[in-house]
Predict the 3D structure of the following.
Amino acid sequence: MSMIVSLIKKERERQNGTINLIASENYVSKNVLEATGSVLTNKYAEGYPSKRYYGGCQVIDEVENYAIELGKKLFKADHINVQPHSGSTANFAVYFSCLKPGDTVLGMNLGAGGHLTHGHKINFSGSLFNFVHYSVDPETECIDYIEVERLAHQHKPKMIVAGASAYARLIDYEKFAAIAKQVNAFFLVDMAHIAGPIAAEIIPSPMPYADFVSSTTHKTLRGPRGGIICAQKERAQMLDKSVMPGVQGGPLMHVIAAKAVAFEEAMLPAFKTYQQQVIVNAKAMAAAFIDLGYRVVTGGTDTHLLLVDLRSKQFKGAVLTGRQVEEVLMQCNIILNRNMIPFDTASPLVTSGIRVGTPAVTTRGMKESEIIEIVHLIED
């Protein structure tokens, strides 16, 4: 135990002593930490409130029901399942609820900004289902909705997936929903990266348009590591059966309690102010990179992240790779991740770009002036 205590202290010191620009990371509140580390971890609660397979769940039922009610209110959802252990298992549960192995699904290409669980061949999604991928327009680097519609009519997918892990622009959910309706496909939105500004009503919500909306509860939402799924009421029963017993057993009740705490915090006025600043900071960061001569993918950002094309600038006659930049900056206690950019010719392990996000530094109180200073530190 002494070794783990020492390592936790070491990691806390690392976090406190670094500038964290990883778009998918954040810092939770003390209350979220306490709920995650509470005695609720001791209780096995397979099933759903009032329908458990174990005794002694009367308090646990109250916890989950409270999380459900808060989640529905926060996201204006007909139905929410708070049990998924992660965003990946949330997506798996949605697929499992209405697809059969081999069914065709249309999702965003990983190289264009999508996610592993949107059909990458090495992931369960690409192994179990026949994924066809849409990309972005070569000129604008934004989603090509004409291509999405063409592919939908060509392949007749049973589901269309929207959402991304490295795409800086807003997504037109209404257009996606219309295309899905044309081919009689289910429509899933993975809002994992942008759940925070959606909850704060800073950017549009997919709830009026999607059959299912999956998300993580960390990242911009600033809660514990975990997942949730929102659904239209007519999809609720099929979804819940898919989560449990379909793809999971007992829920992590300590994490569900922490999700409820995060939902409470997301309803406070300070959370909306925070989300506004996250996006202001991201726009300031994009402008600062551009001012220094870097090319920012799509020319800017509407969200909490941006992609920088490292090929746009040379250092001592050489073009840097994402891997080099990530490793060098880590030695300077600036943490970000290498990332492929649209139509990248470098491998995913090397990449021609970096992904930079502002949620974590904004949580620590940084604003535009600090953001610009950070960009200059990166340049140095």
Q: What stands out?
A: The first strand starts at residue 19 and ends at 20. The mean pLDDT is 97.
